[in-house]
Amino acid sequence: MKRYYDEEDIEKTLFFTPTHQVKDIVEPIIHILGYNEDVDAQGVQRRNKKKSPYDLCQTFINQVSRANWLIMTNGKIIRLLTKYYHSYSEGYVEFNLENMLETKDEKELLLLYNLIHVSSFFQRDKEHSRIITLQQRSMEQGVKVGEYLRNTFKEVIEIFGDELIHQNQELKIALQEKQISPKTIYHTGLSKIFHIIFCQAPSRPFNFFLSL
Fold this sequence. Notes:
The protein is α+β, with helices and mostly antiparallel strands. Helices cover about 45% and strands about 15% of the residues.
């Protein structure tokens, strides 16, 4: 069986190794948990910090250079992980098997099958594997979405500032007399809008496949 990590990798991965590897195939690596195990429960002690099974899998895939894809499951959900280094957010594709079966969501089941089937990870000739092609397309879509959001966000701040000045006569006079600068108003608007978006909205993991 091909080895996807060396002994020197073990310490970097917090002495964690996944449960399974497909025979003679490096990708994908597979980690199976018990049915009642929570993938996000921080109950595993590593280097004076408690880590969740997801944390350990993500650390493993980030630290082992020859490992690029990992599938983890507890029988209720399936997550597909790749290298993702942001510490303030999580990056994976998740499928809820229980919901899919209860609702008989055939489209979601077909997507899951096509995405994690071993053939998705094969590289044909000089072409990328199907999973890499999907990832690249999603990243391109993410850039387009980011550009749109940036332009829209700027417009929202300008509208917010205009309305703030229009409805506040004292602020308008202070601005005219240069007691306060337009830059201060801009940063105030920026702070308020960020608070509305990121503090009021429910958080959810960032998926690296934006187009799926």
